[in-house]
Amino acid sequence: MTPKRLYLTVFFALGWLLAIGVAFQFGLASAVGAAYRKAASRLDWISQKASDAEGAALTSVRQNARRDYLEPLKPTLTSVAALKNPPKMLFGAYDGGFPHDTSGFAKLESDVRYRFPIISFYSAWGDQPDQQFPVRMVETIDRLGSVPMITWEPWVTDFDPRLRPNLPSKSDREYASLAAIGKGEYDFYISPWAEAAARFGKPIFLRFAHEMNDPYRYPWGPQNGNRPDDFIAAWRRVHDIFQKRGATNVIWVWSPHISMPWFEYYYPGDHVVDWVGMGILNYGTVASWSRWWSLHQILDKAYPTLAKFNKPMMIAEMGTLAQGGDVLVWYQQAFYQLEHTYGRVRSIIFFNQANDVTMSTYPLNWTVGQDPRAAEFIAKELARLSAQ
């Protein structure tokens, strides 16, 4: 499909979907719901083709193909068993622009002279096309030679009440949503995801309902009546559905907020967890509730409890802001402590977000490249550790 024809098709589809949206306002949801979902799926396919093109461009502009660079890791990256117990440290990255804008991700890999074996991204629950299983996204990451990691966020209010009349009203859905998931009320959404993951067939890290013990951040937290037992029931149900649908290629990452007490009570069980994950983000002095924390200060208290689960550990979000300290020193101390104190950490995902507004009224810069000295240090550490 030529670019001109692609754009014309997208504009036509958008116009058609807009007309259907107007029809919904006149009570025609039941008549056109199926057509809407089919058209939305087609539009998503078209937009994902554009994403495919970006992925191909990301590969082709480099002197050496990314897959060739990662070829030595192929036996690990293509094996679910090996990824559950990797022989060496696995590094990955999340970039706030990927996949719609690959420039930030490309700059990160250029800055650190490294091609990341894991590419992380986030996906919310809901009825929109971009909230269905991201087939083209995981295929693009696979073509780049990496393994996708999906942080899967159960925002249950994103389901359209006109398409889901059996669900509670939006205002009531967030309360005890994990209990509802555990009882099977969202199987209609989980099952197609599991089936699509099984069809993909290659390894995928899945980080479901992360930081479930944080009462301030996400609606699936305890502030909405979600108890530890509810989370465990929800996790196990989601895991069981994936298993029954044949999605044994999925690798499960349990990721609590380690700064909150009693996170261990949310552990779903050894038989349904492959990795223990955590976030290590230093907010520095950007807010009254924050100060400059080293990786050691963030992780030290929780580490003995995490180690008791006897699972490989993953820092699923790692980064620091510049406000309040020295970015280079922060990373120097972090890598030293990881190598000499926290040996169970077997994977690090850099949180390369240049304009994060989730916790502040102004954009926060987590990128490695904000400090060229830190980027150069990380480049040397990645080369050294990867050669071991």
Structural commentary:
With 388 residues, the protein is of the alpha/beta class. It folds into 2 domains: 1-61; 67-387, TIM Barrel. Helices cover 44% and strands 14% of the residues. It is built from 15 helices and 8 strands. An 8-stranded parallel β-barrel has the order 1-2-3-4-5-6-7-8, surrounded by 4 helices. Strand 1, helix 6 (103-112) and strand 2 form a beta-alpha-beta unit. The longest helix has 32 residues, at 29-60. It is globular and about 55 Å long. Mean pLDDT is 87; it is low at 1-51 and 57-63.
Descriptive key words:
388 residues; alpha/beta; TIM Barrel; 2 domains; eight-stranded parallel β-barrel; 15 helices; 8 strands; 14% strand; globular; disordered N terminus
Looking at the overall shape, the CATH architecture of the largest domain is Alpha-Beta Barrel
Structural class: alpha/beta
CATH superfamily label of the largest domain = Glycosidases
- Catalogue the unreliable spans: 1-51, 57-63
CATH C-level class of the largest domain is Alpha Beta
How big a fraction of the residues is strand?
A: 5-15%
Largest sheet: 8 strands, parallel, barrel
CATH T-level topology of the largest domain: TIM Barrel
- Number of H/I helices: 15
